[in-house]
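Q: I have 133 residues here and want to know how they pack in 3D. Can you give me a structure?
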Amino acid sequence: MAWTDFPCVITGRTTTAHLHWARRYGKVPKGLYVCHRCDNRYCKQLEHLFLGTPQDNTRDAIQKGRFRFHPENLTPHHPQVGEKNGRAILTPDDVRAIRAHPERAGVDIAFDLGVTPSLVCAIRKGRVWKSVV
């Protein structure tokens, strides 16, 4: 068996998960993914892999909170909201301080906190960090 015998249906490239699945169970049927229960795309443990359609893969991502922009995942309790977001720079206290001083220039606050003036404006207008009161 060669790597090229087991291309990923979507990308046309072979993945290690596809190869390991194919070695154990045979060729992956057209239109199906080799999905990961453990959410580690580099995992090759067969008991962590399962076949599914692209819709199954998306549904799995939504249920596990990995589908970033799905409405079900954009609640204040979701791990990607607020300071739990891995890219967040601000804390809830920073947000409260921004809102508490509307007379201070947004550019100055942004410079002090290491964020953009547009983020300071969005916080003041209530478009972002809605969960912080």
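Q: Anything worth noting?
A: Strands lie at 33-36, 49-52. The two ends are 59 Å apart (CA to CA).
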